[in-house]
Amino acid sequence: MSTPAPTRTWTKTAERPLRSAAKSLGVYLFAHFVGVPVPWRAVRQTDGKSLLAYEHERLLALAAAGEHVPVVVAFDGDTMVTGDVGTTLEHLLHRIPEADRLPLMCAASADLAGFHARGHWHGGAQARNVTWDGHRFARIDFEERLYPGLPLETVQRYDALQLVLSLARFLDPLGPAAVLQVLNAYREAWAIARPEASPAQSLQAFLQPLLPRLRRIARLAALSTRLDGSRELIRLRTVLDGMTQFVSAQEST
Q1: CA 62: distance to chain centroid?
Q2: What is the pLDDT of residue 6?
């Protein structure tokens, strides 16, 4: 039985802007500063065809595993056509009422935990790469080659950090308690799916050593009069306060 062709498709080509050396260095330095030793070869993009082929392979593998990713309609080495899997989480959060945002963010966080519990990783788990079609979440953009250069558990927890940081602008008006709820949604879904996992595998264990480093970034940025009152820094502080509560709750149990 053949699968019907998607009614809407997207085309990605090898001939497209790649991450510059400066941006690659920024990603590399930030990851290492917070304690995630991403290999240089994983962030430096120099070959569009190689990136496209890698993403094609990952999409096929994830689809074969039953995960919700775009269907590959066509691939010839230079161009890949995929089906549509809904509106990005980032776009949706801009459109829906504020009262509806936190439940959706918590659901996305729990869905990511389930994806991880099934042994997968994203590599670019920001809200712009998560979609919702009204029934289920899906994931797009699988170009990042973080695994096996890093341990699977490290990449998975880095996914969770990417998601939460990408939600900062929507979490900030709701305060640190909302950040805590989103992190707890991940923790609870992970615990249900992986009850045998050790405490060392938890998101709290991953975030605990990262928090002082992220706090250091916030303090350094505060030295600048321009940055101290910036929306980005205010949002980061809110996220860090929520992460601190999340880690502290684990330490007290």
Answers
A1: 16
A2: 66
